Amino acid sequence: KMDDDDDIPQLSSHTLAALQEFYLEQQQREGMKTSQGFNQYSIGSIEEDWQLSQFWYSDETASCLANEAVVAAGKGGRIACVSAPSVYQKLKEQDGKDFSVCILEYDRRFSVYGEEFIFYDYNYPLNLPENLLPHSFDIVIADPPYLSEECLKKTAETIKYLTKGKILLCTGAIMEEQAAKHLGVKICKFIPKHSRNLANEFRCYVNYASGLN
Protein backbone atom coordinates (compact mmCIF):
# COMPACT_ATOMS: atom_id res chain seq x y z
CA LYS A 1 0.00 0.00 0.00
CA MET A 2 1.32 3.43 -0.93
CA ASP A 3 1.75 6.04 1.72
CA ASP A 4 -1.11 8.54 1.34
CA ASP A 5 1.03 11.37 2.60
CA ASP A 6 3.09 11.36 -0.60
CA ASP A 7 0.25 13.02 -2.48
CA ILE A 8 0.09 16.01 -0.18
CA PRO A 9 2.39 18.81 -1.31
CA GLN A 10 4.58 19.77 1.63
CA LEU A 11 5.18 23.42 2.35
CA SER A 12 8.79 24.27 2.91
CA SER A 13 9.57 25.19 6.49
CA HIS A 14 10.37 28.70 5.27
CA THR A 15 6.95 29.15 3.65
CA LEU A 16 5.29 27.70 6.70
CA ALA A 17 7.08 30.12 9.00
CA ALA A 18 6.13 33.05 6.77
CA LEU A 19 2.50 31.95 6.75
CA GLN A 20 2.44 31.55 10.50
CA GLU A 21 3.94 35.00 10.89
CA PHE A 22 1.30 36.44 8.57
CA TYR A 23 -1.55 34.86 10.53
CA LEU A 24 -0.02 35.94 13.80
CA GLU A 25 0.22 39.53 12.58
CA GLN A 26 -3.36 39.37 11.41
CA GLN A 27 -4.48 38.05 14.79
CA GLN A 28 -2.52 40.75 16.57
CA ARG A 29 -4.12 43.40 14.38
CA GLU A 30 -7.58 41.99 15.07
CA GLY A 31 -6.72 41.74 18.75
CA MET A 32 -5.58 45.34 18.83
CA LYS A 33 -8.81 46.41 17.21
CA THR A 34 -10.90 44.75 19.87
CA SER A 35 -8.74 45.74 22.81
CA GLN A 36 -8.40 49.41 21.93
CA GLY A 37 -12.07 50.12 22.43
CA PHE A 38 -11.81 53.53 20.78
CA ASN A 39 -10.10 51.87 17.85
CA GLN A 40 -13.12 51.46 15.61
CA TYR A 41 -12.38 54.96 14.36
CA SER A 42 -8.64 54.66 13.94
CA ILE A 43 -7.01 54.50 10.53
CA GLY A 44 -6.63 50.93 9.43
CA SER A 45 -9.53 49.67 11.52
CA ILE A 46 -11.08 49.06 8.12
CA GLU A 47 -8.39 47.70 5.80
CA GLU A 48 -8.09 49.25 2.36
CA ASP A 49 -9.79 47.29 -0.41
CA TRP A 50 -7.89 47.65 -3.69
CA GLN A 51 -10.74 46.15 -5.65
CA LEU A 52 -12.73 49.25 -4.72
CA SER A 53 -9.75 51.37 -5.79
CA GLN A 54 -9.13 52.39 -2.18
CA PHE A 55 -5.78 53.73 -1.11
CA TRP A 56 -5.45 55.12 2.39
CA TYR A 57 -3.42 58.24 3.09
CA SER A 58 -0.43 58.04 5.36
CA ASP A 59 -1.25 58.91 8.95
CA GLU A 60 0.51 62.26 8.60
CA THR A 61 -1.37 63.25 5.43
CA ALA A 62 -4.74 62.18 6.86
CA SER A 63 -4.06 64.27 10.00
CA CYS A 64 -2.98 67.26 7.96
CA LEU A 65 -6.09 67.14 5.75
CA ALA A 66 -8.38 66.57 8.74
CA ASN A 67 -6.90 69.56 10.58
CA GLU A 68 -7.22 71.72 7.46
CA ALA A 69 -10.89 70.71 7.19
CA VAL A 70 -11.60 71.62 10.83
CA VAL A 71 -10.02 75.06 10.43
CA ALA A 72 -11.77 75.66 7.09
CA ALA A 73 -15.16 74.54 8.46
CA GLY A 74 -14.91 76.87 11.46
CA LYS A 75 -16.61 76.60 14.84
CA GLY A 76 -19.63 74.32 14.71
CA GLY A 77 -18.81 73.59 11.06
CA ARG A 78 -20.06 70.70 8.98
CA ILE A 79 -17.56 68.61 7.00
CA ALA A 80 -18.38 66.09 4.25
CA CYS A 81 -15.83 63.45 3.26
CA VAL A 82 -16.61 62.10 -0.21
CA SER A 83 -14.67 58.87 -0.87
CA ALA A 84 -12.03 60.03 1.64
CA PRO A 85 -12.43 57.59 4.52
CA SER A 86 -8.98 57.94 6.06
CA VAL A 87 -9.59 61.69 6.56
CA TYR A 88 -12.99 60.85 8.05
CA GLN A 89 -11.37 58.42 10.49
CA LYS A 90 -8.89 61.12 11.57
CA LEU A 91 -11.78 63.53 12.13
CA LYS A 92 -13.52 60.91 14.27
CA GLU A 93 -10.43 60.66 16.46
CA GLN A 94 -11.04 64.31 17.38
CA ASP A 95 -14.50 63.34 18.62
CA GLY A 96 -16.16 65.88 20.85
CA LYS A 97 -14.58 68.84 19.07
CA ASP A 98 -16.91 71.50 17.76
CA PHE A 99 -17.73 70.22 14.27
CA SER A 100 -19.77 67.48 12.66
CA VAL A 101 -18.85 65.17 9.83
CA CYS A 102 -20.47 62.85 7.28
CA ILE A 103 -18.88 60.19 5.12
CA LEU A 104 -20.17 59.48 1.62
CA GLU A 105 -18.67 56.17 0.63
CA TYR A 106 -19.35 53.23 -1.70
CA ASP A 107 -17.82 50.75 0.74
CA ARG A 108 -20.63 49.57 3.00
CA ARG A 109 -18.17 48.49 5.70
CA PHE A 110 -18.26 52.12 6.75
CA SER A 111 -21.89 51.71 7.79
CA VAL A 112 -20.44 50.91 11.24
CA TYR A 113 -20.37 54.69 11.65
CA GLY A 114 -24.17 54.76 11.84
CA GLU A 115 -26.06 57.81 10.68
CA GLU A 116 -22.93 59.64 9.57
CA PHE A 117 -22.47 57.04 6.80
CA ILE A 118 -24.19 57.75 3.48
CA PHE A 119 -23.93 55.13 0.78
CA TYR A 120 -22.52 56.86 -2.29
CA ASP A 121 -21.98 55.73 -5.86
CA TYR A 122 -20.38 58.43 -8.04
CA ASN A 123 -22.30 57.08 -11.06
CA TYR A 124 -25.43 58.53 -9.44
CA PRO A 125 -24.02 61.81 -8.11
CA LEU A 126 -27.28 63.26 -6.80
CA ASN A 127 -28.78 60.03 -5.52
CA LEU A 128 -28.51 61.30 -1.94
CA PRO A 129 -30.83 61.04 1.08
CA GLU A 130 -33.51 63.74 1.27
CA ASN A 131 -32.27 64.90 4.66
CA LEU A 132 -28.91 65.79 3.12
CA LEU A 133 -29.74 69.37 2.28
CA PRO A 134 -28.07 71.22 -0.59
CA HIS A 135 -25.20 73.55 0.38
CA SER A 136 -25.26 72.34 3.98
CA PHE A 137 -21.53 71.66 4.42
CA ASP A 138 -18.89 74.27 5.20
CA ILE A 139 -16.26 72.23 3.40
CA VAL A 140 -16.28 69.11 1.22
CA ILE A 141 -13.16 66.94 1.02
CA ALA A 142 -13.25 64.60 -1.94
CA ASP A 143 -10.96 61.99 -3.40
CA PRO A 144 -12.64 60.54 -6.52
CA PRO A 145 -11.89 56.80 -6.75
CA TYR A 146 -10.66 56.88 -10.35
CA LEU A 147 -8.40 59.18 -12.35
CA SER A 148 -10.84 59.75 -15.16
CA GLU A 149 -12.62 62.88 -16.29
CA GLU A 150 -15.96 61.07 -16.09
CA CYS A 151 -15.40 60.15 -12.46
CA LEU A 152 -14.24 63.67 -11.58
CA LYS A 153 -17.15 65.30 -13.41
CA LYS A 154 -19.73 63.18 -11.62
CA THR A 155 -18.08 63.56 -8.23
CA ALA A 156 -17.97 67.32 -8.90
CA GLU A 157 -21.78 67.36 -9.19
CA THR A 158 -22.00 65.86 -5.71
CA ILE A 159 -19.40 68.27 -4.29
CA LYS A 160 -21.17 71.32 -5.75
CA TYR A 161 -24.50 70.12 -4.36
CA LEU A 162 -23.12 69.63 -0.84
CA THR A 163 -20.76 72.55 -0.31
CA LYS A 164 -21.53 76.09 0.80
CA GLY A 165 -18.40 77.03 -1.15
CA LYS A 166 -15.17 75.48 0.12
CA ILE A 167 -13.74 72.48 -1.71
CA LEU A 168 -10.66 70.40 -0.95
CA LEU A 169 -10.02 67.91 -3.73
CA CYS A 170 -7.35 65.21 -3.73
CA THR A 171 -6.57 63.57 -7.04
CA GLY A 172 -3.77 62.92 -9.50
CA ALA A 173 -1.53 65.72 -10.75
CA ILE A 174 -2.65 64.82 -14.29
CA MET A 175 -6.19 65.99 -13.40
CA GLU A 176 -5.18 69.63 -12.86
CA GLU A 177 -6.97 71.03 -15.93
CA GLN A 178 -10.14 69.02 -15.35
CA ALA A 179 -10.19 69.99 -11.67
CA ALA A 180 -10.06 73.66 -12.64
CA LYS A 181 -12.71 73.15 -15.32
CA HIS A 182 -15.25 71.24 -13.23
CA LEU A 183 -14.64 72.68 -9.76
CA GLY A 184 -12.63 75.87 -10.13
CA VAL A 185 -9.94 74.53 -7.79
CA LYS A 186 -6.20 75.26 -7.93
CA ILE A 187 -3.26 73.04 -7.00
CA CYS A 188 -1.61 73.55 -3.55
CA LYS A 189 1.99 73.13 -2.47
CA PHE A 190 1.08 70.39 0.00
CA ILE A 191 1.85 66.92 -1.37
CA PRO A 192 -0.39 64.18 0.01
CA LYS A 193 1.27 60.84 0.74
CA HIS A 194 -0.30 57.39 0.84
CA SER A 195 0.49 54.54 3.19
CA ARG A 196 1.54 52.62 0.07
CA ASN A 197 3.27 54.40 -2.75
CA LEU A 198 1.04 55.01 -5.74
CA ALA A 199 2.34 55.11 -9.28
CA ASN A 200 0.50 58.36 -10.01
CA GLU A 201 1.65 61.65 -8.56
CA PHE A 202 -1.05 62.86 -6.20
CA ARG A 203 -1.94 66.47 -5.38
CA CYS A 204 -4.41 68.59 -3.41
CA TYR A 205 -6.56 71.30 -4.97
CA VAL A 206 -8.56 74.04 -3.23
CA ASN A 207 -10.79 76.98 -4.11
CA TYR A 208 -10.16 79.03 -0.94
CA ALA A 209 -7.19 80.42 1.01
CA SER A 210 -6.09 77.23 2.75
CA GLY A 211 -3.30 76.33 5.12
CA LEU A 212 -1.96 73.81 2.60
CA ASN A 213 0.31 76.28 0.84
How would you sum up this structure, described in words?
Helices cover 33% and strands 18% of the residues. It has 213 residues and is an alpha/beta fold. It has one domain: Rossmann fold (3-Layer(aba) Sandwich). Strands 3-2-1-4-5-7-6 form a seven-stranded mixed sheet, with helices on both faces. Helix 4 (149-162) packs parallel to helix 5. The longest helix has 24 residues, at 13-36.
What's the SSE blueprint?
Layout: H1 13-36, H2 59-73, E1 77-82, H3 85-93, E2 99-105, E3 117-119, E4 137-142, H4 149-162, E5 163-172, H5 176-183, E6 186-187, E7 202-206
Parallel strand pairs: 1-2, 1-4, 2-3, 4-5
Antiparallel strand pairs: 5-7, 6-7
Helix pairs in contact: 2-3, 4-5
- CATH superfamily caption: Vaccinia Virus protein VP39
- Uncertain spans: 33-43
Give the radius of gyration: 20 Å
Largest sheet data: 7 strands, mixed
What proportion of the residues form beta strands (DSSP E)?
Answer: 15-25%
Give me the count of strands: 7
Order of helices and strands: HHEHEEEHEHEE
CATH architecture descriptor name = 3-Layer(aba) Sandwich
Report the helical percentage: 25-40%
Specify the overall morphology: globular
Instruction: For the record, give the distance between the C-alpha atoms at the N and C termini, rounded to a whole number.
Output: 76 Å
Structural class: alpha/beta
Top-tier CATH class: Alpha Beta
How many structural domains can be distinguished in the coordinates? 1
What is the CATH topology?
Rossmann fold
Q: Give the strand line-up of the largest sheet.
A: 3-2-1-4-5-7-6
Count of helical regions: 5
- Report the mean per-residue pLDDT as an integer: 83
